[in-house]
Specification:
Layout (H helix, E strand, L loop, with lengths): L2 H14 L27 H6 L2 H14 L3 E11 L2 E10 L5 E5 L2 E5 L14 E5 L3 E4 L5 H8 L21 H11 L6 H9 L46 E7 L19 E5 L13 E5 L10 E2 L3 E3 L6
Length: about 325
């Protein structure tokens, strides 16, 4: 019996049994990618509802649209009672790994029972554009790779895999420009931190679990050593604070996926916890003074992002 005849019989038997033959997990050739598959990236609920092949095709299309990024694999992460299969990419210029975050209507801000002074009220925020976000805080090895050895501060703490800290905000902006990345808006940061949850922390509301996800005592440690959230991100509640693109203003009105451009130019929003600090939830925010010249901001690092402009033709 020919090979073709045997394949026909396998398909017929599978159809009669009410099931489908197994699908190959090998990458789909670029020519076979349906441009409509990227539509699932406009909404987290559609991404979740899609099958594995649709998610892979959409991720491959993102790799086409973002030439600095190479698709590595799709991995399922579970945290805080939610589970997401996330596409992971390698950013060529920096070497950082990134998670692909779909758009959608996402609940952000602080629920009444978790509210602390200075946070946004609970609200729904529309993210029109998916984005790629670094899985870890930027490390000294990545800093050197992009800016060169001469950019390493002589008084830096930690090794090559420790997070960048104690540097000027203007230097962070320079890094992002050279790497063709940018800082997240604080809404993007909070969405990435929550990963579809709405508790005080990405993992729930009990501080007893915090040591599993965050370093909030002693000195910063190497990135990526603790548990990730449901988007595959590490250290969102500890290690170093993370600066955002927004200017700092009082938390009034609504949040937006685009950075806040009004407010004092010297003040920038920071999110996340850091060592030598109490627990910091998803919605808590602070300000960093980018013009302070007495010393650079201590325990202030960053996690870059890259917007994905979809082409659904």
């Amino acid at each position: 019996m020919s090979v073709l005849a045997r394949m026909v019989i396998v398909v017929l038997v599978a159809a009669l049994a009410g099931c489908s033959p197994s699908v190959s997990t090998s990458p789909v050739p670029v020519a076979a990618v349906d441009r409509g598959d990227v539509a699932i990236l406009r909404d987290l609920t559609e991404w979740i509802a899609a099958d594995a092949d649709q998610r892979r095709r959409a991720a491959e299309r993102v790799g086409e649209l973002c030439p600095d990024f190479e698709l590595l694999r799709l991995v399922r992460f579970e945290c805080g009672g939610v589970s997401h299969e996330i596409a992971l990419f390698r950013h060529g210029p920096s070497g950082l790994e990134f998670s692909l975050v779909p758009g959608g209507l996402i609940q952000l801000g602080s629920a009444q029972e978790f509210y602390e002074h200075g946070e946004f009220d609970a609200q729904w925020v529309r993210f029109e554009t998916p984005f790629l976000v670094a899985r870890t805080e930027t490390t000294w090895s990545v800093w050197e790779r992009v800016l060169g050895a001469e950019a390493l501060p002589g008084d830096r703490r930690g090794g090559s895999q420790h997070p960048v800290e104690h540097v000027d905000v203007e230097r962070i902006d320079d890094f992002c420009e050279r790497a063709r990345l940018r800082l997240p808006s604080e809404a993007q940061w909070e969405y990435a931190c929550r990963a579809g949850t709405f508790a005080e922390y990405c993992f729930g509301s009990s501080e007893l679990e915090l040591p599993l996800y965050a370093r909030i005592t002693y000195w910063p440690t190497e990135v990526g050593e603790l548990r990730p959230n449901a988007f595959g991100l590490f250290d969102v509640h500890g290690n170093v604070q993370e600066i955002c693109a927004d200017r700092f203003t009082p938390a009034e009105g609504t949040m937006s996926e685009t950075p806040q451009s009004e407010g004092p130019p010297r003040l920038r929003v920071t999110r996340g916890g850091h060592v030598n600090h109490s627990a910091v939830g998803c919605a808590q925010r602070r300000a960093a003074d980018k013009t302070y010249r007495g010393r650079s901001e201590m325990h202030l690092g960053f996690r870059p992002v890259h917007s994905v402009v979809l082409d659904e033709r």
